[in-house]
Amino acid sequence: MIESATADLPRAFDDREMYALYQRPHRVADLVLAQWPRFVATVAAGGHLRLLVVSMVAASVVFAVPYGLVLGLHAAWRVTALFLGSLLLCVPALHVFGAYLGQRRSPAQTLAQALSLSTVAALFSLAFAPILWFLAVTNAPGAVIDTPMLSRWLLAVCFLAGVGHLLRCTWGARALGAADLMLVPVWLTLLGFVTLRMAGALGLG
Amino acid sequence: MRTALARACVAAAVYGGTLGAMHSVRLAALDMVKFPLLVLLTGAVCAAAFAVVARALAPNLGARAVGAVVATMFGDLAVLLASLAPVNLFLCVALEPAASAAQLNDYPLFLGLNMLAVAVAGSLAVARQGRALLHRFGVRPLRASALLGAWLALSLGVGGQGAFYLRPFFGITAVDPDPPLFEGARPDFRGASNFFEVVGHLLSPPRRARPSRANRS
Question: Which of A87, A182, B40, B57 is most buried, judging by how many CB atoms fall within 10 Å of its CB?
């Protein structure tokens, strides 16, 4: 578990708020994005991690589908694979290197922290889906700046939004050691590289 | 919010009518429909993105507040532009319209002044909503700036592409006496197929193709 420096963190989500996710699973976006200090406190406290992780994985999958559908029926799953798939490939490294550098955190806590990136990226892709659709419909077929290029820019913004949110959650946690300050930026470099290669493999890059 | 949207549509129609007045009554009438449509389309397409960006940067702004701020912002822009409608109509009479594609006379000036008006009115509308975010909703200055900047970037991208698709708003009677309802994705005179290529061509004009040896006399 994260050390007692979490004593001055905002209040973690209580049982009632977490169980409400069963009835309104889409609210996980609100919990992760808008109420991120309490999300950080919840992860630090270690309570309801299974529910949180399952909700965030579901959000990362479902929110990314509409954007993929705009690219084509065959691409419905690709944005999910891009953000969530790349993240899941890199999470083991985050946990193991963190443990090596002295972080005392369970795998579920590491996973919950990392999933905030894919959840926010998927949420932004959901918000950008109508914009991509509009640009695709109004763009000429033979344009130099074509729809796939515009899509790459939008996906990059989604990814950067997720990165910014993860950094905000990490550096806002106040339980910072050298591991937190150094590890996450380095890990994000790895994740960025993997995501770029994944985009190429999926035909999104 | 509905009142703000209705006000925006009426004001946008008033201003839109003056854009095409230098060309013809027909284009002016078309612009009275197209300009409000452009405003509504931009707001509708960007609505989800506006809300999510606001959730990320200003969590205390609920969905209704975001809608109210954005609708007021577009409304302010339209009203500010509508206030310039009498000036625009005067310029349509006082400025010399283009005689041909080679002899543009005051047409570029008319075009430039309207672009400037949109830029100034847009900046004022954004600044006013920035103050509202600070005082009414307690959003911190840096966050408010970032939020408004993001909303502006989204509106410019989508609105710019919408304007490209719905063009022409202006026109030269001598060159095109009977413009279509909208050009759609048809490339412009420089070959740009969308708003982003237009911007690219403004920053780096495309080179004209040299005539081949076979074509030289």
Answer: A87
